[in-house]
Design brief:
Layout lengths: L1 E7 L5 E7 H47 L1
Antiparallel strand pairs: 1-2
C-alpha cells in the first residue's frame, strides 16, 4: 500500500512523493528522532549556559568575600 506524502525541498516548494508503508514508517521515525535530537540539543545548550552563569556568579561572590 502506497501513501502520498508531501515533502518540502530546499526552496520551500512542496513536492508530492509516493512512499511505500515501510518507507513512510522509516521517514516518520526519522523525523521523530530528529525532533528529539533537536530538543535534547536545546536543553543541553540551556543547561550549559545555566552552568556558565552559575560559575560566573560564584566567582563574583568569591571575589567579594576575598576583598572583605
Amino acid at each position: 500500500m502506497n501513501t502520498p506524502q508531501f515533502i518540502t525541498n530546499d526552496k520551500g516548494k512542496k513536492l508530492k512523493v509516493i512512499l511505500s508503508m515501510d518507507e513512510y514508517t522509516r521517514l516518520t521515525q526519522a523525523e521523530k528522532e530528529l525532533k528529539k535530537l533537536k530538543v535534547n540539543q536545546k536543553l543541553k545548550e540551556k543547561s550549559n549556559s545555566t552552568e556558565a552563569i552559575e560559575s560566573r556568579m560564584k566567582a563574583q561572590l568569591y571575589r567579594k568575600f576575598a576583598e572583605e
